[in-house]
Design a protein that fits this description.
The chain has about 425 residues and is an all-alpha fold. It has one domain. The chain has 16 helices and no strands. Helix 12 packs antiparallel against helix 13. The relative contact order is 0.17.
């Protein structure tokens, strides 16, 4: 217990250690997070009337971000699968960054659900009426919290073993890794079923919603990791090879092609067959009766996705500059398409034929920015702690004044192989 307490204290201490750029970044994120907390306190006092949501459009920017972030959590699976199933050692040294991202992102997901409820005490209603297994919402609660606990255990155990200077026992983390792979697929599938199961919203009643979720998740997650790894490589001594980045590029390449193909199938089905939810699709892509708030956004998202896919297919994207452009376009394009482009059109028109456009308020935007800032703050702290610990620069043995024992050559926590 004394060593574990020392480990927690060193982690806390490391989160405050850095140069002026690190402190400036952390101060900026803290300021935005506090501004978001203030905006949420106003919502807590006055209710959801401070948002742009109405009786007609009851889900907005909060659920749009939640939907996108559930997909971003797939970054962990996209690093774990090549390493532990296909034995791709290029990603071996960086797999921990995907796991840490999953932890931060799932916490953000839970925060977006909380602010969308209006009052935190409404969570009690969910647990008092835990309608399992009938309710899809109950399945989603289990999926999100289970995925969070799995990644917390895997990351915490590996980092603590590195801190203690000993090789981790595969019995205590490898089974959890394979469970987490299946669980990563389940959180996207269950979230998709939340929408597909609402028969009163025909725009979501499509069997390919779940595959679209998975394809976009397996593109946006690795894109975020590619950008993160380059920052880690530039500002720390952690070795991140170009082979690792190019392996993630190949994953993105396949995922973006599938994502664009499924989007094309959905658009063809909507407009060629003139299905039951053609009106919602018309509002999204073409506008409806002069209401076209989302039209420029969705077309920008489509162009971004197409350009990103083209860049990833071309051999020129092996250059890191073009790869970074493709990553940014993928992240933003998928955020628009799987966020506002998926959530809002399902509510228009209403079952009574009303067309009430939804526009986020400044309060909503500030709350969302605050949650994003808090998530990035957590992720920055996680990375800041893990890099020196995994590199052997901070160990429990050094704290006691003894040299750290050498780890086995085949250790899964060895930073540089």
């Amino acid at each position: 217990m004394r060593r574990y307490a020392a480990f927690l204290w060193d982690c806390f201490r490391l989160s405050f250690v850095g140069d002026w750029r690190y402190h400036l970044w952390m101060a900026a994120l803290t300021a935005v997070a506090l501004a978001g907390l203030y905006a949420y306190s106003q919502q807590l006092v006055h209710g959801l009337v401070t948002t742009g949501m109405t009786d007609q459009v009851s889900w907005g920017l909060y659920i749009a971000n939640f939907t996108y972030l559930v997909g971003l959590a797939a970054a962990a699976a996209m690093l774990v699968i090549p390493v532990y199933i296909y034995r791709n050692m290029h990603l071996h040294d960086v797999v921990i960054f995907g796991e840490l991202l999953a932890v931060a992102v799932i916490i953000m997901c839970l925060l977006f659900v909380m602010v969308d409820l209006g009052r935190p005490d409404k969570f009690l209603h969910l647990f008092q009426r835990f309608n399992f297994p009938i309710s899809m919402l109950t399945w989603d609660v289990i999926a999100l919290n289970g995925y969070l606990l799995l990644n917390l255990h895997i990351c915490g155990y590996l980092i603590y073993c590195a801190y203690c200077g000993r090789s981790p026992s595969r019995v205590f983390y490898v089974p959890f890794v394979f469970v987490a792979i299946v669980w990563a697929v389940s959180i996207h599938t269950v979230t998709a079923f939340l929408y597909v199961g609402l028969g009163g919203r025909p725009f979501w009643n499509s069997a390919i919603i779940a595959p679209r979720f998975l394809a976009s998740a397996f593109a946006a997650g690795p894109a975020f990791i590619v950008l993160t790894l380059q920052i880690v490589r530039h500002y720390t001594a952690h070795r991140v090879t170009d082979d690792a980045l190019l392996t993630l590029r190949r994953i993105m390449q396949v995922a973006m092609i599938i994502n664009v193909f499924l989007l094309g199938c959905e658009v063809f089905t909507e407009f060629y067959t003139e299905s039951a939810h053609i009106v919602s699709a018309q509002y999204l892509y073409l506008g409806l009766h002069g209401r076209n708030a989302l039209v420029p956004w969705i077309w920008c998202a489509i162009v971004m996705s197409l350009v990103a896919t083209l860049l990833l297919v071309l051999p020129a994207s092996r250059s890191l500059k073009l790869l970074n452009v493709a990553c940014v376009l993928s992240i933003v394009g998928i955020w628009i398409e799987k966020g506002m482009g998926l959530i809002v059109p399902a509510f228009l028109p209403t079952p009574l034929g009303e067309i009430v456009e939804y526009v986020p308020t400044a309060h909503e935007i500030m709350v969302c920015l605050g949650i994003w800032a808090f998530g990035l703050l957590l992720y920055t702290i996680f990375v800041r702690i893990s890099v020196p610990v995994l590199a052997g620069q901070v160990t429990g043995e050094k704290r006691l004044g003894r040299p750290a024992p050498r780890r086995d050559r085949g250790s899964d926590t060895q930073p540089n192989r």
